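Subgroup meeting minutes
Present: P.N., E.W., G.H.
Scribe: E.W.

1. P.N. recapped why we're keeping a running log of single-chain structure predictions: easier to compare across weeks, and new members can see raw inputs and outputs side by side.
2. G.H. added today's entry (216 aa).
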Amino acid sequence: FQTDFPEYDRLLAFIPLEKAQSYFGLESQMTGLILNVENPSEVENADLIISESLGMLPYMTITWKERHASLLDWLNVYDIPIKLIMFFITAVGVFNIGASLWMIILEKTREFGILQSMGLTKSQVREIIIKEGTIIGLSGSILGILLSLSVLYLESVYHIIQLPNDIYFMNYLPVKISSVYFFFYPIITFLITIGFSYIPAKHACKITPSEALRYE
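Output recorded in log:
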């Protein structure tokens, strides 16, 4: 068998229980049991129940989380920079959208002035800018979700990204769809984009027809 986990592949072998007892001279005894739980996240509860049932030494229990504590700690630490990266990506995206809206206002100053001279109110100008920011934010969020899902699907099926299993304990990059990354972050980004659109919209409302048409 091969688990792609070097610690197991080097040290473990599966043989019939009777042959193992005969080889080690244990007769009908066993040195340990491996138990599986239906829900791996509830392994602590199972460990507590088993420990209370067995009592004190020489019996002891160890969970998969305790056995691989260093690896799990490393994964938890690694999760922090991932969230920071997501935050900065979101911040950069929001600022880029705000800058794009600002450039649109600067380029369309004359048009805004003409529209106001034709009776367009400041609230309508604000509504135009906010709607444009909403469209950009919504389309960007949807496109990002679809693109990310496509990449994750390709990776989960074809294992495009290969990893050295002697370092990462696996030979390809596993992927998992997280509702936090696929729904929470896009929604937050979308809402921030709408809120950020109020800044250029407020500036657009200050444009007067005389100022916009001054250099015409």
